[in-house]
Structure to design on (977 residues):
């Protein structure tokens, strides 16, 4: 074509602009639209992108869900191909939120046998997402590494579980599993907001004289339960405190009006609706009398304090393999 | 003879005029012949003038076009299969463009000549713009002698406008650059520093001492927030990569009051976005324990917190030191709280404590000084009452990524000085002996003038490097840096991380630290009002690198960064914090709180609750919360029973 050579410089200039823009803003381009590269494995166009950038859209749905349905997704293609399934992501988020879990609880989350759970966790270890160790007698513990937390997009500090907190961590995980096993929980689409997430949300509230519950359970508005829209505080009590201290904690939780991390002036605003509609205490046999007496010391709000026993398998030295399984 | 002379003179004038016309015609011919290049150059110079760009930017743009030229030449070589054709391609393109213009295809002509005209025009424009700047800086350009000054003032405005546009563009000014430098904002102008679009401070420079001076309302807090957030972000990134220690930011806000609380809230939200998980606000929401100091340091700190007299009053100082030493170093170990320490400041308690064998010397000392013990106890009781519970624990600097310490330097200078002294001693101990040896610490002292009288920060300044501790001092003026000139110069001269100057009425001592550079003074001959000729003389003089007059005129959000004999004027990019958490929406039908209740919120002295119960507002019943009556309670019970079994008896 006679005129094609004349158009060549313009075409080159245009092409240069296009290629320059695409290379300068790859992540923005990836996040801005439905990027096929993030969904079609094997055709990774932006293979140079950080892993988090490519995984964020995938994580988002699980991240927002309060349900622990780690068994969803493929069952065997977990990490053999180096990719994470939805089950892995849900389980990783569970582990991240609970600080650390023991093998039997991980198996309960994944809804697989302990041997299979161990193999899946080994895949996480190979990917650098998780770490495991026998921190005491019993089954091994699993927790996320910095890389794993980063891949999940969670702003938590990566640390191995403290030995002094193992019993408490196991108890809280057992409580969450037991609650999640209730049909009403799944039907309502409730959201578990663990202590780790609360602390992360609270940001610079360290050294405060305020108490952070072990978890919050949010019941979404419109859920098919009578308490839709409520927020519950969850407390797992293993060892008895003094009655005065327990009552003070109950009072603080029930009187709180602001979210954790809000300015101090909004934490307890007189006249504002309380943040927690009720507080649920899951107690060991040792702590039960103290908690009951503390509740009795709060006559005005005793109806908002629920006391139950810890579910079976919540004890650190309890029979393995029964955590999370409610005695039905 | 005269006629011939006049004729000769006329001939010479005509020849001169003809030569001048010939030169102009030749230049015009060149400009017209190279019209595409001339056009691009003219556009480039106009843009550079409007944007206040340095010529380097045009050169860089010309260089960036070279790949396009190379691709174009390669394409020509491939299609024509002739190197000669490729070499002659610019000429052919030029020729073709004229033909296309003649044929009425201006757009096609522009596309044809663009690969040649754009880089060449940019380079020519850069040269022309460089010459323009040079003649203006040397004072030899312009119609009037005041033209260079007007040009400089206009260029400053243009540069500021460009910098503001740059920081307003979303995503154009990141907090940390790819190379890990903290980006303070957009560069307005540099002198002695390399030209750049963004003002970047390497992380290691934040690990050195810095000084920030600026009056209220000039954007000092915005600048400091950016530096602090950058320090934490980059420090945490390095720590996560295993290339550095975990950062710790400690801010002493020595102003106090409600304004400091607002700043603290903003700092917390900004630092939260920067990666800090915990920002402790002292003493409102967190505390530190003075009593964790070793006994010797505790004694020194306690004594330093009390103001002593001089002359004959030195005797009482010695007595106080002896008694405090006895109370702290009692056989039972050092005190663990202020109350315990005050309890020990009792002649009877000390007498019993040192009654055992082996304490004869201390007992004798106590006997001679026992009559002063009540006075000393009174002074410390007063001190602790004024200090509040913030130093009585529990807590340590290691508990948070950042500490924002509010000292009431405006309302109670003496208490603020004592608090500052204690906090700095605690931090020095933490950095030198505690877990802080494994952290990279930045101590920022804002409004330093409030505590500069008794806080010998320059001592910490000089030995801080070995502790891994960097100090950043900010004040409203040069005079606010320290009580006397020696200390001020000591602070400023050892600020090897640089000095940030915002608008301040007396910048000369600081700008002098930036040094001087050669400049030209040019005079021009007056030909008659209002005509000046282009003849004159120039002389070299030493001009300050940082112009004090310019610093006096800085606008809000503009700062001059002085470092290593150069200065960079920066338009600071404001960090936008995450919005504050909002209180839950009021329940429908709930009446707004009465005024008395609002007043109660401002001053919340709560009445003690019933015995065995914590005080506080009345706790509503469950039904009152959910408004759903007994049905939800039954449903809750059913759910909990299903998940955990029935409530134990």
């Amino acid at each position: 074509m006679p005129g094609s050579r004349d158009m060549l410089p313009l075409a080159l200039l245009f092409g240069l602009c296009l290629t320059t823009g695409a290379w300068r803003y790859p992540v923005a381009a990836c996040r801005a639209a439905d990027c096929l590269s993030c969904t079609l494995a094997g055709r990774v166009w932006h293979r140079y992108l950080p892993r988090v950038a490519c995984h964020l859209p995938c994580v988002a749905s699980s991240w927002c869900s309060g349900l622990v349905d780690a068994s969803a997704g493929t069952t065997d293609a977990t990490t053999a191909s180096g990719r994470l399934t939805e089950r892995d992501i849900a389980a990783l988020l569970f582990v991240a939120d609970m600080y650390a879990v023991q093998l039997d609880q991980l198996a309960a989350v994944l809804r697989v046998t302990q041997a299979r759970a161990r193999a899946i966790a080994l895949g996480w270890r190979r990917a650098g997402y998780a770490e495991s160790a026998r921190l005491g007698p019993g089954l091994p513990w699993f927790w996320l590494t910095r890389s794993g937390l980063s891949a999940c997009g969670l702003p938590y500090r990566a640390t191995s579980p403290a030995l002094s907190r193992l019993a408490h961590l196991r108890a809280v995980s057992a409580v969450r599993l037991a609650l999640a096993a209730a049909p009403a929980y799944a039907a309502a689409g409730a959201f578990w907001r663990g202590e780790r997430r609360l602390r992360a949300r609270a940001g610079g509230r360290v050294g405060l004289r305020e108490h952070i519950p072990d978890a919050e359970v949010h019941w979404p508005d419109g859920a098919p339960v009578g308490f839709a829209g409520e927020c519950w505080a969850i407390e797992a009590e293993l060892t008895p405190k003094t009655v005065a201290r327990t009552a003070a904690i109950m009072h603080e939780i029930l009187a709180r009006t602001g979210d954790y991390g809000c300015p101090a002036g909004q934490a307890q605003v007189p006249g504002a609706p309380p943040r927690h509609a009720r507080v649920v205490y899951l107690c060991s046999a040792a702590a039960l009398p103290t908690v009951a007496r503390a509740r009795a010391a709060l006559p005005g709000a005793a109806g908002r304090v629920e006391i139950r026993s810890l579910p079976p398998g919540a004890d650190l030295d309890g029979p393995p393999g029964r955590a999370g399984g409610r005695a039905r | 003879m005269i006629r011939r002379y006049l004729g000769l003179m006329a001939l010479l004038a005509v020849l001169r005029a003809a030569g001048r016309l010939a030169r102009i015609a030749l230049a015009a011919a060149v400009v017209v012949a190279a019209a595409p290049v001339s056009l691009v150059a003219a556009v480039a110079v106009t843009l550079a003038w409007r944007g206040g760009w340095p010529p380097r930017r045009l050169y860089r743009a010309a260089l960036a076009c070279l790949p396009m030229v190379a691709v174009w030449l390669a394409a020509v070589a491939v299609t024509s299969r002739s190197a000669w054709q490729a070499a002659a391609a610019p000429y052919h393109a030029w020729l073709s463009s004229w033909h296309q213009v003649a044929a009425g295809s201006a757009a096609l002509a522009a596309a044809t000549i663009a690969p040649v005209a754009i880089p060449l025009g940019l380079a020519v424009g850069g040269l022309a713009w460089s010459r323009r700047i040079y003649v203006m800086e040397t004072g030899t350009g312009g119609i009037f002698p005041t033209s260079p000054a007007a040009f400089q003032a206009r260029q400053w405005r243009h540069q500021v406008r460009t910098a503001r546009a740059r920081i307003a563009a979303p995503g154009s000014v990141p907090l940390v650059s790819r190379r890990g430098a903290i980006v303070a904002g957009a560069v307005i102008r540099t002198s002695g520093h390399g030209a750049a679009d963004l003002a970047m401070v390497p992380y290691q420079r934040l690990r050195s001492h810095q000084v920030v001076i600026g009056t209220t309302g000039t954007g000092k807090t915005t600048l400091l927030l950016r530096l602090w957030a950058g320090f934490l972000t980059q420090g945490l990134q390095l720590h996560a990569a295993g290339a550095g220690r975990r950062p710790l930011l400690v801010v002493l806000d020595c102003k106090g009051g409600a304004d400091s609380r607002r700043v603290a809230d903003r700092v917390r939200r900004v630092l939260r976005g920067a990666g800090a998980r915990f920002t402790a606000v002292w003493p409102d929401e967190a505390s530190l324990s003075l009593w964790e100091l070793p006994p010797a340091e505790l004694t020194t700190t306690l004594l330093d917190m009390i103001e002593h007299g001089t002359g004959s009053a030195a005797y009482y100082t010695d007595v106080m030191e002896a008694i405090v030493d006895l109370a702290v170093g009692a056989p039972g170990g050092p005190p663990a709280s202020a109350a315990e320490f005050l309890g020990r400041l009792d002649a009877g308690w000390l007498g019993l404590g040192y009654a055992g064998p082996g304490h004869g010397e201390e007992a004798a000392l106590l006997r001679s000084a026992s009559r002063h013990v009540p006075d000393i106890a009174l002074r410390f009781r007063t001190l602790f009452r004024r200090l509040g519970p913030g130093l009585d624990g529990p807590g340590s600097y290691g508990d948070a990524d950042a500490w924002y310490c509010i000292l009431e330097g405006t309302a109670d200078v003496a208490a603020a000085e004592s608090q500052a002294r204690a906090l700095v001693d605690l931090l020095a101990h933490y950095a030198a002996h505690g877990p802080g040896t494994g952290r990279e610490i930045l101590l920022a002292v804002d409004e330093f003038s409030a505590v500069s009288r008794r806080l010998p920060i320059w001592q910490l300044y000089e030995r801080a490097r070995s502790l891994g501790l960097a100090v950043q001092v900010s004040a409203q003026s040069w005079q606010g840096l320290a009580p006397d000139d020696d200390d001020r110069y000591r602070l400023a001269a050892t600020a090897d991380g640089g000095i940030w100057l915002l608008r301040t009425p007396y910048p000369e001592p600081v700008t002098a630290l930036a040094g001087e550079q050669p400049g030209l003074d040019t005079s021009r001959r007056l030909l008659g009002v209002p005509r000046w000729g282009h003849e004159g003389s120039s002389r070299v003089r030493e001009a300050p690198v940082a112009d004090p007059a310019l610093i006096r005129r800085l606008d809000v959000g503009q700062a001059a960064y002085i470092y290593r004999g150069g200065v960079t004027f920066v338009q600071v990019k404001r960090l936008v914090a995450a919005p504050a958490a909002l209180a839950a929406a009021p329940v429908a039908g709930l009446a707004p709180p009465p005024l008395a209740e609002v007043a109660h919120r401002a001053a919340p002295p709560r009445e003690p609750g019933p015995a065995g119960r914590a005080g506080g507002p009345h706790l509503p019943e469950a039904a009152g919360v959910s408004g759903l009556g007994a049905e939800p309670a039954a449903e809750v019970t059913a759910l909990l029973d299903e998940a955990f079994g029935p409530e134990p008896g």
Residues 22-137 of chain B form one domain. The first strand of chain B starts at residue 182 and ends at 191.
